[in-house]
Amino acid sequence: MANLKQYIFFDFEMLCANRGMSFSTMEAIRLGAVKYELETGKISHFDRYIKPNSTKPLSKFCKQLTGINDADLKDALKFNLVFEDFLTWVGGVKKITFLLMVN
Q: 6-100 belongs to which CATH class?
């Protein structure tokens, strides 16, 4: 097994509604992460908005909960492109432990 080189802490912000949403309508609208390199102690950040497939404006509830506005998503990239950038930023996945933040 490869020696562990870094920790990645990451969190997705999702489309949301005060009455809940079905799983099939939930979409990521932001990916944030912190990378901690074990050998150097270096900390770096990744923070990108994600354009949802839904063209509906964000609900007032979602805007208040996430702090994200429709304007933030206007020029955002689709999930597959943001996730590709994320994996490039990570530098590969062989010597990393990912830790998902769940609230």
A: alpha beta
